[in-house]
Amino acid sequence: MTQQAEPAVTTPPAPGQRKTDGRTARRPLVFRLLARPEVGVFLGAVAVYVFFLVAAPPVRDGSSMANILYQSSTIGIMALPVALLMIGGEFDLSAGVAVITSALTASMLSYQLTMNVWVGVVVALIVSLGIGFLNGWMVVRTGLPSFLITLGTFLILQGVNLAVTKLVTTNVATDDISTMDGFDQAKKVFASSFDVGGVQVKITIVYWLVFAAIATWILLRTKYGNWIFAVGGNKESARAVGVPVTFTKISLFMLVGLGAWFVGMHQLFTFNTVQSGEGVGQELIYISAAVIGGCLLTGGYGSAIGPVFGAFMFGMVQQGIVYAGWNPDWFKAFLGVMLLGAVLINLWVQRTATRR
């Protein structure tokens, strides 16, 4: 005799109890926005801006804001490739002196050999890319932390900058190249300004924003951007799925070299000469702007927009203190507070982003 199975009894959910399918619940929009690496620094930049609007009335003037944006752009242009490198799991301590190395190369080669300045510009580009390639190749081939490799490069470049400049020019600075062929054209490209409503705006501000847009597109819309996040997250796993880890890391160091070349050319054609001892300490500014912008030292996380706001905060504080009439020595204290605050915010954001 065949037995018929009794139909299963479905117990309705208790009142107020939601039925789930086992998947992670969709978090509210505010938490999803806060999980973005650039949101925290954007709010911080707004707070700093409002603070100095109140504390330093000259900031409200158009020319003052143009000056603040200019200071921010000279930091921000270098902070962008440094941020991409950090997302890729590495960082470069030689970035600051590499800027001066590039400028010294272009200046001395042009002046001492009486060449058109564009020859020096091109050679400086090759040298800067070569320094980046060497850093990346050493990191990949030796497996040593990039901290050690680029610290060695930092010391080498610092010594070479001083020694070679003294040897060639018998001085600690290069000669004035403002009367040489090609100088005016190069100045228009790297160090010109234009008028906006009666306010002189430096061309580096435009370059800064354009470079940020390109870097954002690369990170979010290209295969190379996926490679950067992958090698920064776990390079062995990335290699296992076919990501060219060696190419990605070396190219990121070369991007830092490209940024150093551009900023070096701007400094050279702005001041016509270069002090060989400059650049020391700037690498910490670039790294700090990237960290404040949401990049993690552990790699695999960050954005290109965040360092834009991070650099703006640096420029805002640096110039805001002057406009407020305060002792400029406080700049370092503000810097430390911003950096520690950014690290704590980034830690909270990271935990928020990974929380179910």
Q: Helices and strands, in N-to-C order? A: HHHHHHHEEHHHHHHH
Return the structural class.
Answer: mainly alpha
Helical stretch tally: 14
Strand order of the largest sheet: 1-2
Q: What gross morphology would you assign? A: globular
Number of strands: 2
Rounded average pLDDT: 86
Radius of gyration: 25 Å
Q: Beta-strand level of the residues, as a percent range?
A: under 5%
Give the uncertain stretches in residue-range form. 1-10
Overview of this protein structure:
- By secondary structure, the protein is an all-alpha fold.
- Helices cover 68% and strands 2% of the residues.
- The chain is built from 14 helices and 2 strands, in the order αααααααββααααααα.
- A two-stranded antiparallel sheet has the order 1-2.
- Strand 1 (193-196) and strand 2 (199-202) form a beta hairpin.
- Helix 3 packs antiparallel against helix 11 (245-271) and helix 4 runs parallel beside helix 6 (146-169).
- The radius of gyration is 25 Å and the shape is globular.
- Mean pLDDT is 86; it is low at 1-10.
For the structure shown, list the relevant keywords.
2 strands; 356 residues; disordered N terminus; mainly alpha; single chain; two-stranded antiparallel sheet; 2% strand
Short description:
By secondary structure, the chain is mainly α.
Structural topology:
Blueprint: H1 29-34, H2 39-55, H3 62-87, H4 95-112, H5 117-142, H6 146-169, H7 183-190, E1 193-196, E2 199-202, H8 203-221, H9 223-233, H10 235-240, H11 245-271, H12 282-292, H13 305-323, H14 330-354
Helix pairs in contact: 2-13, 3-8, 3-9, 3-11, 3-12, 3-13, 4-5, 4-6, 4-11, 5-6, 5-11, 7-11, 8-9, 9-11, 12-13, 12-14, 13-14
